[in-house]
Amino acid sequence: MNNPKTLTKEQLSARSAGESYQQMLDKETVPVPDSLRESTDTYLGSKNLSVDRYFSPEFQKLEEDKLWNRTWLVTCRESELAEIGSYFVYDIAKYSIVLTRTEAGEIKGYYNACLHRGRQLRKDCGTAREFKCPFHGFRWSLDGEFQGAPCEWDFPHIEKETFSLPQVQVDTWGGWIFINMDMQAESLQSYLGVLPEHFERWKPENTFKVMHVEKVIECNWKVAWEAFIESYHTVQTHPQILPYLGDSNSQYDCWGDNISRTISPMGVVSPHLENIEPDKTVNDWLEHGAWLTDGSKVAVPEGMSARKWLAEYYFKHYSEQYQTDLGSFCTQSEIMDSILYSVFPNFAPWAGFHPNLTYRMKPYGNDPEMCTMEIIVLMRYPEGAERPADCAVQKLGKDQLFSEAEGLEGGLGRVFDQDFSNLKMVQKGLHNLQSGEVVLANYQEIRIRHFHQTLDKYLSA
Ligand code: FES
Ligand SMILES: [Fe+2]
After folding, report:
1. Does residue 251 lie in a domain region?
2. Using a 6 Å cutoff on CB, does residue 412 contact ligand 1?
3. Ligand 1 pocket check: which of 112, 123, 138, 165 to mutate, most ligand atoms within 8 Å of Cβ?
4. What are the tens digits of pLDDT across the range 175-185?
5. Is 136 in the pocket of ligand 1 (CB under 6 A)?
6. Residue 25 to residues 38, 265, 273, 311, 398, Cα–Cα distance (Å)
7. Mean per-residue pLDDT for 75-84?
8. Burial of residue 120, with CB atoms counted within 10 A of its CB: 0-12 exposed, 13-18 middle, 19 or more buried
9. pLDDT by residue (tens digit) across 322-360?
10. Is the dihedral of CA 223, 261, 70, 100 positive or negative?
11. Which pLDDT score is estimated for 296?
12. What's the whole-number mean pLDDT along residues 224-232?
């Protein structure tokens, strides 16, 4: 029977020019994990999206009232709250939550407001053994219990036992701390669906932050989000990476309401190009990634594919770095492909054994036409070794380029800057779209459609 939620045979066969990602997996020489073998072939209809969701203050308000306070949101790494008393303030839309590690070693999250006259209790991050409001000095323990105030005789009406800091739900996955302001919300485990099972092999909990950049962008947070969950724009926006990116060979999957994925094979030539030799694929990649700084060129041996050459190169490099034999269990796909998952609404972790990029978008203040995007890189370290310290956050203003950030000077920064050059122009263009609607591809933009369908469920609830 024809399931309306999957693509038809005709749609499937028209879809892939050249080799599909699944056919590339057939060439792997070690067992391929089941998660990569999954292919959902989702079809969610072809309806257009109304543009007001990208700039109307009413829509932004609806998100504030029904989205950010009801979903599981990623805040910081567990390693950033390692010590008792360490705290981290997580702000999103109008909400501010302070997370802390209690005396018992638990992580708790409280609304960041003093119960006296409302002053925010904390800012940024740091360490302290109690919550003491800087205004009049009301105090709470790390467990959120009221400890006292100066001149307590003046507050006979405060019931100490119930004057505790209101909490949010807190849970962890993959070394990340999540919160949910809705105390009735489903558990994080159930919200994450297939994600924990898929990532079991990649162990994101055993990584540390080597790069964290946060940039202000002049577009709605969803415009930025959408630009990073499809590879369809590569042919026009990033032509320099086509010799080594199978953009239109990408596979797109959706699971339940909250999880989706794009896998874009790397080290293969885009189906949009012809007559590209393996030498060019390898040398362009190495040059853009600044892996070879002395300018020397590689010659790929006769009969060897660029993908195989690059995989072996990376197996060697990362096996030394992680002190493990990657070639014995890691697929070529997991050492080089772009395997990008997303968790509704705004958290997108890469998978695989290379350094893992992670994206997060947030609204900026209450302006629906501004947002911040964060790019985080997580790196593995040798098993049993002490976890290296996480790096600090670099903050970039709206007029700064990503390639100005430390660690993004090379080809990667250029790719991101190409993306950002579109975003501001999309935001402006949306106001002049006479149809009032954006049009989406059925397959390559399925994750955008999937995202909006889930968003609509929250906003109409
Ligand atoms: S507002 Fe916090 S002690 Fe007064
Ligand atoms: Fe891009």
Report:
1. yes
2. no
3. 138
4. 999 999 999 99
5. yes
6. 11, 10, 22, 13, 41
7. 97
8. middle
9. 999 999 999 999 999 999 999 999 999 999 999 999 999
10. negative
11. 85
12. 97
Same domain for 429 and 353?
yes
**How close is the Cα of 409 to the center of ligand 2, in Å?**
16
Look at residue 17 in the predicted model and tell me its pLDDT: 67
Q: Containing H/E element for 341?
A: strand 338-343
Among the atoms of ligand 1, which is closest to the Cα of residue 115?
A: 2
Residue 347: enclosing H or E segment and its boundaries?
strand 347-351
Same domain for 217 and 251, yes or no, is yes
Cα(138) to centroid of ligand 1, in Å? 6
| Same domain, yes or no: 152 and 220 | no
Examine the domain organization and report whether 255 and 323 are in the same domain: yes
Shared domain check, 184 and 210 = no
pLDDT at 18: 80
Is any ligand 1 atom within 6 A of the Cβ of residue 117? yes
Kindly state whether residues 211 and 95 are assigned to the same domain. Answer: no
Domain that holds residue 156: 73-189
Ligand 2 centroid distance, CA of 431 (Å): 23
Residue 4 lies in a domain: no
> Are residues 393 and 282 part of one domain?
yes
Give residue 48 CA to ligand 2 midpoint distance, Å.
22
pLDDT reported for residue 405: 87
Residue 196 lies in a domain: no
Predicted local confidence at residue 222, as pLDDT: 98
Looking at all shown ligands, the one closest to residue 247's CA atom is 2
58 assigned to some structural domain: no
Q: Which ligand is nearest to the CA of 227?
A: 2
Do 180 and 286 reside in the same domain of the chain?
Answer: no
Beta bridge partners of 308: none
Residue 149's CATH number: 2.102.10.10
Question: Would the CB of 119 count as within 6 Å of ligand 1?
Answer: yes
Compute, in angstroms, the gap from residue 268 CA to the centroid of ligand 2: 17
List, in order, residues 6 or more apart from 29 with CB less than 8 Å away.
none
pLDDT digits (tens, 9 = 90+) for 135-173: 999 999 999 999 999 999 999 999 999 999 999 999 999
Cβ contact 232:447 at 8 Å = no
| Between 95 and 13, the higher pLDDT residue | 95
The closest of 339, 354, 361 to 260, measured between CA atoms, is: 339
